[in-house]
Amino acid sequence: MYKAIIIGTGPAGLTAAIYLARANLNPLIIEGPQPGGQLTTTTEVENFPGFPDGIMGPELMDNMRKQAERFGAEFRTGWVNSVDTSKRPFTLVVEGHGELQTESLILSTGASAKYLGIPGEQENIGRGVSTCATCDGFFFRNKKIIVVGGGDSAMEEAHFLTRFASEVVLVHRRSELRASRIMQDRARNNAKITWSLNHTPLEVLAGERGVTGLKVRNNESGEDEIIATDGIFIAIGHTPNTKFLQDQLPTDEQGYLLVKPGTTETGIPGIFACGDVQDTRYKQAISAAGTGCMAALDCERYLEAAEDAAATVTA
Ligand code: NAP
To answer: Which residues does 236 contact at the CB level (< 8 Å), separation at least 6?
Structure first.
């Protein structure tokens, strides 16, 4: 049995791992299908303190992992199929590892990219539809591509994709962008980006060799239009990865885990949440790392209190 299991290896999970490992609690960290989390799909991280010249996302995550390993954190790769929080110790069923038991649990499973839910989208993932510019941008050298969304992610992806593409059309359903001023300005100053604001995506069009266009509704004229393209990058936000918990913990209506304000405590003592899985507001690597530290400290205190209580009963 483990004293602490951490699910997820983004900045939150790995920071929690560093703290728990340094506290000699020998945490087990379970890595999912995207080890390192969202930062492994980004390029340069310019706003993580301590790196005046920036650092590549994957390198930053690799460093965090090595730091956790240095203090004795154990890693296993596998999909967590279920967690039983109804009795102690908590039991996890992990693909390839069977049942694992733990006294405490830190949830740092992050969030996954959202899709538009329009016809033609799912069947063309990998055939021109993508949610990861850093992963797939290279395939669109000298091609015309579309980025959908009006937030910081869309601005960032559009700007990044101009390294490869001949033209990037930014399609957004409203005339106002949600993105921060600095990100908007960067995109607006990029001559390779053209704008289709106030256009709602309706359908991904494809031929035998993949995506050929995006059907959109011009919300001003009410007319449908087709924008010819070789690739469509969807950058419309994320969904928290909490499905595997099967409603055992309190969440908001979108599925983000709820924590007691100012702590990482979920509705069940001994289970803590950190990073994007509980963050609807900041969603930054540095704030995820910060809550990872908080979760580890909350977890240490919980384990200490449980040990004290057990010692009192025995005495
Ligand atoms: P976001 O801020 O939630 O923006 C999502 C965008 O997608 C919105 O413009 C939204 O349109 C649009 N959208 C959502 N669902 C849609 C649908 N079904 N069809 C069409 N459009 C849809 O998400 P985000 O851009 O991923 O950013 C999330 C957080 O991460 C933010 O706090 C952001 O600041 C942060 N972030 C920061 C950086 C950075 O600083 N380098 C980079 C990326 C992200 P509406 O505007 O009409 O709702």
So the answer is: 114, 116, 148, 149, 151, 153, 154
- Mean pLDDT computed over every residue of the chain: 94
Task: Report which protein residue has its CA nearest ligand 1's atom 18.
Answer: 116
The protein residue whose alpha carbon is closest to atom 19 in ligand 1 is: 116
Q: Which two structure tokens, joined as six digits, stand for 167?
A: 């033209």
Residue 274 is among the residues annotated as catalytic for this protein: no
Catalytic residue among 135, 185, 224, 252: 135
At residue 200, does pLDDT exceed 70?
Answer: yes
Query: What's the CA-to-centroid distance between 121 and ligand 1, angstroms?
Result: 19
SS3 44: strand
Distance from C-alpha of 189 to C-alpha of 260, rounded to nearest angstrom: 42
Token reading at 290: 């910060």
**Residue 33: pLDDT above 90?**
no
Pocket of ligand 1 (CB under 6 A): 116, 149-154, 156, 173-174, 178, 180, 236-237, 283
CA angle 97, 103, 105 (to 5 degrees): 70
Closest-CA residue to 289 (of 67, 69, 140):
67
Per the CB < 8 A criterion, the answer to whether 84 and 101 are in contact is no
pLDDT one-digit tens code per residue, 137-147: 888 999 999 99
